[in-house]
Write the C-alpha cells for this entry.
Amino acid sequence: MDRIFLSKSDYCKCVQCEKILWLDKYRSDVLESETDESVFETGRQVGEIAKGLFGDYEDIPSDNPIKARIEKTERLIKDKPNVIAEASFIYDNNFCSVDILKNDVDGVEIYEVKSSTKIKDIYIDDVAYQYFVLSNLGLNVKKAAIVYINNEYIRGTELNIEQLFNIENITDIAVEKQDEIKSNIDFINEYMKNYEENEPVKELGKYCFDPYSCSFWDYCTRDLPTPNVFDISGMYKSKKFEKYYDGKISFKDLEHESLNPKYLEQIDFELNNREEKINKDAVKQVLCSLKYPLYFIDYETCQYAIPEYEGTKPYQQIPFQYSLHVIKEPGAPIEHKEYLAEADDDNLIRTFAESMIEDMPEDGSVIVYNKAFEATRNKEIGKLFPDLEDEMKRFNDNMVDLMVPFKNRDYYTKEMKGSYSIKYVLPALYPDDPELDYSNLPVVHNGFEAAHAFLSLKNKTPEEQSEIRDGLLKYCELDTYAMVKIWMKFKEVIGDDDIL
C-alpha cells in the first residue's frame, strides 16, 4: 500500500487520537455535528490580517487544486526574496500549506497563524510537521514561529497589526521533534493500513477532549449506560476519567462513592426519582430583596478576535442586544422593551448603554440570570465611557441574581440534571410548555448561535438580515420572559401575596 495522503490537519488529529482519522475516513456518517463555521471564519479573518505582517505578499488561493498550489509555490520560491501566503508543499505524500512563508535568499521562515491568545502544544506539533515537510524537500528552514493574538492589545482609532499579534520563535522545539514527527507519520500509515477492513478499538481518554472536543464522542460512548459518569454536571473531566478507569461508570456504580455532595445529589435524584427540593427561606430571601419597578434584563454579546471598536481588546465581550421585561408596580402589566444594534454602528457599545439607561430610568431591581456576566459588562462600559460610569454602577448596585437558588441547590429537581443553566431550569419548572421551548424558536436557539448570527449580518442580503434580526429578537425576548416565569414560580412556591 502506498503511503496515505496526510495533511497537517490530519496529522494533528492523529496526535490527539489516531482513531479520529480512521473515523473521518470510514464512519463520517456518525459525526455528531457539522463543522463550526464561525470558528473557521474567525481563523480566516485572523489569517487574512496576519498576511500583511511582513509587507507585500504573494497569495496562493487555498480553494485551488492542490497540484496547482504546489506548482505556483515552486515558481514563487525561485523568485526570492519574497513573502508567500499559503505556500504549499508535499513530501512523500505529506502535505502542508504554510500560512506565511518568508522566502529569503539563504532560506525560509515558517509562520503559523493562530486565532488563539496563547500557544497550545498542538500548535507546536503543527509547526514541527511543516518543518519536517519543508526540510525534507531540501529547504533551509531558518526559523519556525507561531503568530497568535495579543489579548492585551487595546485598539486605537486604527488597527495596528504589529501590536495585535505576538510572534513566538519555536525553531529549537520544532527541530527537536523531527524524529518524533517521522515516527508518528510511519505509525499513522501502518495504523490506517492495518485497519482497512476492521474498526480499531480505542479506549476513552482525556484526549477525547484535549486539545479539542472530539466530534465522535457520542459514537465512541454509545455502549455506556445512560446516565453515566460523563453526565455528572460540573465534575472535572479528569475526575470523570478517574472514576471511569476505576470501573465506576453508571450512576448505580457511583451512588456510594466519595464525591462532592452536589454530584451525589444529582445521582440520588436520578436513581430514586426524588421529588423537587425547595428551600423556601432561600427563595423568599430573593423575593424580599426585590423592589419595584422590576427590570428583567438579559444581554447578548459577541467577540471579535480582531477588535472592531476603539478602546476594546481581542475577544472582549461586546454587548449588541438586550431584552427587557418591566413590571412597574404590583399588579401592573408586563411591558417589553428591546435593543438590537445595527451591524454597521461604529459606536455600538455606547448606543447599547444609552438605550438601556433610557429604558431603566428608575432605581428598581435589575433582575438577571448569572449576575457576574451582566455586571462585568456594565463595569467595562463604565470604564470605556466614564460619563456613563455612574449609571452603570446604579444598575450593578440594584442587581439581583435569580440563578442563586438553583446554583446553591436551594431549588432542585431531577430534570435539572445537576445544572443551573436556565436552559435546564426553565423546562424543569415548566415542563412541556411550547411557549418556553427554545427549540421552537425560528432562527436562534442559544447564546452561541446569537453571537454567530449577529456577526454574520454584514455579509447577508437585506432579506436575510431581516430574518436573522427577527430571530435574534425572539430569542432574547424568551430569555427575559423566562426570568419573569421563574419569578412567578418563586411567588407560587412561597405563596405569600405580600412578597414581590
Summary: Residues 462-494 form the longest helix (33 residues). Residues 128 and 175 are 7 Å apart (CA to CA). The chain has 20 helices and 14 strands. The two ends are 75 Å apart (CA to CA).
